[in-house]
Design a protein that fits this description.
The protein is α+β, with helices and mostly antiparallel strands and 119 residues long. It is built from three helices and nine strands, in the order αββββαβββββα. The strands form four sheets. A three-stranded mixed sheet has the order 5-7-6, with no helix packed on it. Strands 1-2 form a two-stranded antiparallel ribbon. A hairpin with a 2-residue loop joins β3 and β4.
């Protein structure tokens, strides 16, 4: 409940920063307590992440920045995501698994499809 409220308040702070698909802008995907942020570029991701941390703190929630939080840039140069006020540095990855689906930096889902076929 708190996470949903925090995300709703957080989304109000952005205008077209997520991924626009037809008439809808997607900012995040959420499963249980695992949010996945979606941004067009590094600067938007940095801003959105900082604001999400601030919003979570208002609700008494905390992101596990140092151990569990990672980010991946599809089709862009990856670099560390530096957060202000000692809130941490988020490292980039070339491959990420979310809800059991592996996505690679180049956006290629073929390795995931081949893994599923070979199971």
């Amino acid at each position: 409940m708190y996470i949903q409220n925090a995300l709703e308040n957080w989304q109000k702070k952005f205008a077209k920063m997520g991924l626009e698909i037809q008439d809808t802008t997607i900012y995040t995907m959420l499963f249980a307590d695992d949010p996945l942020l979606i941004a067009q570029d590094y600067e938007n991701l940095e801003y959105m992440t900082k604001k999400l941390i601030d919003e979570y703190e208002l609700w008494g929630l905390k992101l596990n920045i140092k151990k569990k939080t990672k980010y991946m840039a599809i089709g862009d140069t990856s670099r560390y995501l530096q957060l202000e006020d000692g809130k941490g540095i988020t490292s980039h990855v070339n491959e990420y698994t979310y809800l059991g689906v592996r996505v690679t930096k180049d956006g290629n889902l073929e390795p995931e499809i081949n893994d599923r076929i070979n199971r």
